[in-house]
Write a structure and sequence with these properties.
signal; LysM; mainly beta; M23ase_b-sheet_dom; Resuscitation-promoting factor rpfb fold; M23 family metallopeptidase; Cell_wall_metabolism_enzyme; six-stranded antiparallel beta sheet; Membrane-bound Lytic Murein Transglycosylase D, Chain A
Length: 526
């Protein structure tokens, strides 16, 4: 919350302006009536025709001479100031670094030497730049050339914190400083913008008088934004004179204002945080964090909800507001599962692809110095409904009894060795090779009665009992995808073609057995 007690009372601007007007502002003029070089006091009428007025010129309390015309010396000082601008900067307002005094005296005999005074000033006179000094609770922050640049620096920080679209609508906080008579006390509440906004000062409780802030209601095109603006500390601007190299640019002062002052803050431990992550988030080393928390040690365990002391920087300017923000968000689609007897158990297919929907969600968001501190959803409107993804899952039972019609047990390929006599013995099946891919397929429905390695030469093999007097055998597989006792349907993948066991190369050895005896598979394969 913006602390405007400091804006309204403690930080009323008591700005001394010793250099207001012409360039020679450190000037004291004192009138006396004297008797030339005589010591003592003489009383006479200053209008006496026999008396003349002269001016004793002092630089930092040291008498340097006497002149009859103060304006001539001041003009000389002004000329030197203009000459100094050539090296110091044409846009600066320069004032003498020394305090120059003119003490007027009325005398009977005037002994003056303006040339001597000018010669001494020529040798000794130096100039400083008139400046505005920014202080926080009496501590120096920086100098800028004038109030306009001070205003720009403060306004730059405020603008950085404003929501999009507001910076063109708002009359900023200290825009009217330039119209203020800085010799008088200034109540900042009188400087805040009145012409564009509904304005009120909010006071909390008598015990908490510091909690005062200036509130503006900004009417934008489609909403109202309540904006609180103020200083966090007792900030004062005073007119001073400094060496020109000490002046800051607007951006430099703005950074100092935004950086602010070092304050001790509390951090509430969140889930998954440890000492090192908390320290890193606050630009501290772990040792520095432990130093700030005497109860902690290197091996201390912190828990969710614990409060730790952390050192942070607090901006000198506070800008808080609440705005409505509408965002477009996606809506996830649901996945719906439907059962169907058109597919076997274990089989599934997507009958309708899912697609996301969309919605417009309006939030009320509270911001403080450019950071979101709270978000509440106040409205939601669906602009496009999501479409469910529908997955069909099979319920059809696989028959463990085969039809007796066998399908080709591979993906393409040809018979490379037939059933019958071969190499002086009998070949009990056919060999298939030259396939499109190496998947081995069940020739008919049935139950797996063997799935594993066979030491008799078949290598990895699968045997299926079709429960109708037929069995089929698949040998030399590189891998097996089914288990004993599993019911398989015709065309289901049993494994991958390989060259295990006694094999001359990658191929499938396929056998058909009828009532316990092998038969030529050819006539049975459709």
């Amino acid at each position: 919350m913006v602390n405007l007690k400091k804006l309204m009372s403690d930080s009323v601007q008591k700005l001394s302006k010793p250099f207001k007007g012409s360039l020679t502002k450190k000037v004291i003029v004192t009138s006396v009536i004297g008797t030339g070089l005589l010591v003592g006091t003489a009383y006479a009428d200053s209008s006496d025709d026999h008396l003349s007025n002269i001016y004793h010129v002092y630089v930092d309390n040291e008498h340097i001479g006497t002149v009859s015309d103060e304006d001539e010396v001041q003009s000389f000082i002004d000329e030197k100031a203009e000459e100094a601008k050539e090296t110091e900067g044409e846009d600066l307002t320069l004032v003498p670094s020394q305090e120059i005094e003119f003490i007027e005296e009325f005398v009977f005999t005037a002994n003056t030497d303006v040339d001597e005074v000018k010669e001494i000033l020529e040798e000794s006179l130096t100039f400083d730049a008139a400046a505005i000094e920014l202080k926080v609770d009496g501590e120096h922050i920086g100098y800028v050339q004038d109030l306009d640049k001070a205003n720009q620096a403060v306004n730059q920080v405020i603008t950085d914190y404003l929501p999009d679209g507001v910076d063109e609508e708002i009359t900023l906080l200290v825009e009217q400083f330039d119209d203020v008579d800085v010799d008088e006390s200034i109540d900042l509440i009188d400087l805040l913008p009145q012409n564009m906004f509904e304005t009120e000062v909010i006071e909390t409780t008598e015990e908490d008088l510091d909690e005062l802030f200036y509130q503006q209601t900004i009417e934008l095109e489609d909403e109202s934004i309540v904006l609180d603006v103020g200083f966090t500390e007792n900030v004062t601007f005073s007119e001073v004179a400094v060496e020109s190299h000490e002046l800051l640019e607007v951006d430099q002062l703005a950074k100092l204002i935004e950086r602010g002052t070092v304050t001790e803050q509390k951090h509430e431990v969140q889930d998954s945080e440890v000492l090192s992550t908390v320290a890193q988030d606050h630009d501290l080393s772990t040792d520095e964090l432990i130093d700030l928390n005497p109860d902690l040690e290197d091996d201390s365990i912190i828990r969710v909800g614990d409060e730790l002391n952390v050192t942070g920087l607090s901006s000198l300017v506070e800008v808080s507001y609440t705005e409505k923000v509408t965002e477009e968000q996606s809506i996830d689609y649901d996945t719906v599962t439907e059962q169907t007897d058109s597919l076997y158990k274990g089989e599934s297919e997507v009958s309708q692809s899912g697609s996301e929907g969309s919605k417009e969600v309006t939030y009320e968001i509270s911001m403080h110095n450019g950071e979101e501190i709270e978000r509440n959803k106040i409205e939601e409107e669906v602009t496009e409904e999501p479409r469910d993804e529908i997955i069909k899952e099979g319920t059809k039972e696989i028959s463990s009894r085969g039809s007796g019609d066998f399908s080709w047990p591979a993906v393409g390929g040809t018979v490379t060795s037939t059933y019958g006599p071969r190499w002086g013995s009998h070949h009990n099946g056919i060999d298939i090779a030259g396939v499109s891919n190496r998947s081995i397929l069940a020739a008919d429905n049935g139950v797996v009665v063997e799935a594993g390695y066979h030491s008799g030469g078949h290598g990895n093999r699968v045997i299926i009992d079709h429960n109708n007097g037929y069995r089929t055998l698949y040998a030399h597989l590189s891998s097996i995808d089914v288990n004993v006792g599993q019911t398989v349907k015709q065309g289901e993948t049993l494994g991958q073609m390989g060259s295990t066991g006694n094999s001359t190369g990658v191929h499938l050895h396929f056998e058909v057995e009828r009532n316990g005896s092998t038969v030529d598979p050819g006539p049975y394969i459709r």
